[in-house]
Amino acid sequence: MVGKTDNQAPCQSSELWSQDKNWDITPELSTNERKALADYARCLALGKKGYHTVQVRRELTRLIIPLKTALKWMNAARTPSDSVIHNILIEMHCLNKPYWLWTEDQWVGFFCPSEGEFHIKFGASGNCRQYAIALAWLLCDFGRLELIGRFFQYRLCLKVFGKEVTDKAIKRIQDSMKRWGYNLEHDRNLIRNALCMVMLCQRESDPEKLKIETFKRVIEIGPAYMRTTVASLSRILSDMNILPKGIDHRIDNRRRPNQEYRAITNVPEEWLMWCQKWNELTIRSPSSQISMWYRILQCGRWLAVTHPDMTSPANWSREIAIEYTAEVSKLVIGKWSDPRSMYKEKHGNLMKPSARAAVLQSVRIFFRDLQEWGLIPVNFNPDRVFQLPRSIRSKIGPDPRVVPDDIWSKLVWAGINLKPEDFKYGKQLYYRYPFNLAKTVCIFWLFSGLRLDEIIRMRVGCIHWVDGKEKNDHKICILHVPINKTSKAFNKPVDSIIGEYVEIWEKERGVQPQKHEEKTGEIVNYLFMYKGNRISRGYINNSIIPLLCRKAGVPLEDARGPITSHRARATIASQLFNSKESISIFELQQWLGHTSPQTTQHYLNITPTKLAGSLLKAGYFERNRRMISVLIDQDIVKAGTNVSGEAWRYYDLGHGLCSYDFFEQCPHRMACAKCSFYVPKESSKAQTIEAKSNLMRMLQEIPLTDTERAAVEDGVQAMDKLIKELKKVPTPDKS
Fold it and tell me: Which residues form the Tyr recombinase domain (predicted)?
């Protein structure tokens, strides 16, 4: 039946399947049956199908009747019926026992991992494999469908449950699917197949009776391509109050690949026991805890080679701790670890200072915790012995990985100008999420300055608008940031474009199930929810950023490495700090949600333009350029008479010279006529007479308007007032 649609696929009538109690299911093959199977296999080698002969058909009757009865009940066509019976007879000859005694592993081997391999083995079509699976399910109670690879779950349900029962179960969940945003034309097959898979595994056609244990079994050991869909189905049934709760397949235990890297390889058993005990008792964020776990296991591998008799932290001495500190100080990538193919191209390179510091910090915390908990004796002070050497500590400091301005500007342009057609490109399935959800995530990444974890944990109603200080000011968008790794929840002003797109997505989002907040234990409505599930942690880094880079025409990496979600935070912070009307580091600390300005410094990259502007405002260079020129009488210096007190340094005032060494501290500053330090130039008198003449001419001879005359007289009065005030201030020579 290959090529037929689901509606055209043959299936059984509405009656329920039941086995005939009169069937002979004797467990052993008789001598005649074995001989008939051997003759059949021999005929097969000659290109004949032996069971068509009268003698073979007579001897194998009790084996064939249940197969034919079940196939007739399923309304199977003649060709696939004959083909599947033929294949089962051949396998019975190979296994030398009837099919109802086959183990589940033998059935799995018979089905092969895929239709292609089944066709290679038996020369039969995929539809034949489908009927073989149905026969095993009906006649032999085979239920390990999660182990047989890909197959058509819906069509198998049609064969064993019937179309009426199967479609009724599927229709039962469609209302919830539509309410959550599923497109029934495109998404129905995925959820439908997941429902059929669970029904088949539990051998239950009523969704109301499905058990959560069946869902967990399919997720843990079932095919990888179905885990996400089965988890989504569990959340739909939970919303319908059929299951107590949904399943998150990303955090539940599931089957791991055989070749997967195991961190405990080559770690001494006793050291591993202490590591596991510490891992059970410590209270840290999951990401920090798992990183420290790997590092203390790395220390165990070092022990196994250098001190195999000291694998317990209780036996460590100060000397061993110092030895390990020295080892970490020169640690290279790949040493004392089992990374398989990870970082293969960097093996043997010296670790970065920050990485070596993290290794020492993990071991330091490990020993300190065990000592404080009273589990091991205090043989040394971990804080002192595992202290980071100064030579490494000096190389660690703020080094923000800011995206260059030209690249960042292009990314911002790409984010603002995203269109739906930009999301359907290449291998990345950007279109899994609605356009407005994806664009809102883009805008958050480009303008909010938030951590990745904060973006995906945004809640419905996270923005509100407040009026500006002035009447004509635009409304200010205030964003509520949830509790994060360093601070409690807080509010921050953001660009209005964030508020606009949040409002658009909230209208389109519809009703979504509430989720458990892992940091606070609350039941919350996440903003970025679709089909009953929050967007994944890798969505921004693996989908959104490559999409923006492609549209902007920029590479995924620059001189500082890959463009990641967290680099936007440092870029935005640095641009705010370096802007013309910059904000202070303390304001940035509050805006970023840091607990101390020292943390904020790690996000700031002061540009040369900003630094030059600050120096210009400080006036250091300008003050030096404007400073009164200093003239040195080299003859006096060479003669040595300056030692006796004779003036040798002069400040050029233009109209005269000043020999006072501390001219900058002189309160008179240019009012020098009465000062003994003042040495007038020969032309000073002529300049004074000329200046007075010009002033008198301006006041008496030149016609001035009232405004101009008032300005001149006001200036004269100001000068008189200044001279009058300075009369009471002694000159540097105390006169």
Answer: 416-616
